Amino acid sequence: MSLITTTRLTVRSASQHAVRASTPTCKRRTFLNSIFSGPSTVKRRPRPEEESPALPTPTREYHPSPRPPEKVVHSAANARQFDEYPVKTVAVSIDDSPREFDTVFLRDSCTCPRCVDPHSKQKLFQTSDIPQKIEGTSRIVEDTDKGWMIEVEWQNDVPGYDAEHRTRHSLDWLRRALNTEVELRGGFRHDDRVLWDRDTITKNNKWVDYEDWMGEDEVLFDALSHLNKYGLLFLCNVPGSEVSVVDIASRIGTLKDTFYGRTWDVRSKPKAENIAYTPQFLGLHMDLLYTSNPPHLQLLHSLRARTPGGESFFSDAFHAAQKLHDVSKSHFRTLCTFPVTYHYHHKEYHYHNTRPTIETHPYPKYSEPTNLALHRVNWSPPFQAPFEARIGTSSPALRNYLAASHAYEKLLSAEDNLFEYRLNEGECVIFDNRRVLHARRAFDATKGERWLKGAYVDDDVFFSKLRVLEERFTGKWVAEGAVRPVVR
C-alpha cells in the first residue's frame, strides 16, 4: 500500500475581518485559540421497538460556527485501497474534528467558470473524465465574498485543463456537505407534516385571499408551507373566470397537461367518460393513479355552486395509515407490499399501472419498513383494475390484502377523520393528491348548475417553488429529508 501526501487544514473558522483589523498579532492569536464551537449533535437511529409512530420525524439541525483558520499543516497519510487504485484524500479539520474528503469529490464539485457555465449553471465536464489517480495539494485562502476557502492545485487534472486550473470550496460549503451526508446516511428524516383528523384540520385550516396569493411572495411561501404540512389549502375571492385556476397554479409553476387537457371541467353531462362528470356520489379517491407519475397537487375552482348537495369532503390518508399501524402492523405491511392495479381503459386512451397502497421512503438495511416515513398513498377504488398478481387459491396474499384494505377504509371514512365543506362560487381548494383523499356527495343536477374548473401541478414543480421561497425567507432548503442551509 502506497503512501500519499495530504493537506491537513485546522479550521476554526469563517469571517474575522474585524479581529484582523483591530487586534494585535499576539492578542489575536490568544483570542482565536480561545474560540470553540463543537460539532452539531448527531442522534443515533432508534431501534424499531423504541420508535414512535407519530410524525413529524426529528432531524439534526445545522449549526454554523464561523471562525478563521489557525494554521495549515502538511502531513502524510496512508491511502486506502480501492480495487487497484489508492484513494487520494485531502484532510480538513472542521470544528476541531478532522475530516477527509476524497479528491474525486473535491474535483467533481468544482464550480469555477471553466467547470460550470456561469449562465446556464450546467456542468462542463463529466465525472467519468476525472482520472482514477487524481491527487492535489491544497492551501487555505480568504475570499472577500465567501470567507475562508480551501484551494486545490491538481497534479493530474481532467484532460483539457491546464496547470493553472484551481478548485475552491468554502469551509461553510464543506461543512454543509458533511452534515448532509450524515443526515442522508443516518436514517432520520426532516418532516414538517402534521397528520390530521377533522378537529385538527378544522382548527388549523388556512384560507388565503386570491389577491394576496397572486401578489405577495411571503404570503405564497406561508401558503405553500401550510400546503406541504397539511396537504389542504383554500383560496377565497377568486375571480369568476375560467382562466383563474391557471393563474393560481402558475404562481407555483407549470401546469401538468394530461389527456383531460391543461385544465378540465367537472360538471354533469350524459354518457360521461368519468364518474366525476355525473351527479352520482363519488367516494374517497386520488386522481390518475393509472399514470406513471400521478399529479402532486389538484386544484378545483368553483365557478357555479347552484345545486343542492355536492359537498366535498377530504380525509388524510397518512393519518389513517398511522392509525392502521397502531392497530395492526401486519395490515400496514400488507398495504406496503401488495400490488394493486389501476387503469383507464377506453377506446382512445389506455393507461395501466400497478403500485402498493402505501409507499414509504427508502431505508438503511437495518431499518424496519413500518417506521412510518410515509412517502405516498395510492387509493382510488373507482379506477381499480382486476388484480394481476397473487390471485391463485394457493396463496393467502389476496385475502390478506382484503382484510387490510377493509381495515384501512374504515379508518379513512370514519366520521371523525372527514373534513366536509361545500365550495362556494369564487373559492378554490388545493390539495395533495398523493396524500389527501377527496370525495363528493351526490347532487341534483336538475335544480341548478355545479361547475368546477380543475388543474394539476406535478411534485417537481411544487417542491422547486417551495425550495426557492425557503431559501429566500428562511436561509435553508429541504430535499430527501435533509435540511441544507444556504451557502453563498
Automatic annotation (TrEMBL):
Cofactors, names only: Fe(2+)
Which BP terms from GO are recorded?
carnitine biosynthetic process
Which domain of life does the protein's organism represent?
Answer: Eukaryota
Coiled-coil stretches noted in the UniProt entry, renumbered to this chain? none
Biased composition annotated in UniProt, kind: Basic and acidic residues: 60-71
Q: Where's the TauD/TfdA-like domain?
A: 208-456
Family, according to the entry, reads as follows: Belongs to the gamma-BBH/TMLD family.
Would you tell me the protein name for this molecule?
Clavaminate synthase-like protein
What's the source species for this entry?
A: Bimuria novae-zelandiae CBS 107.79
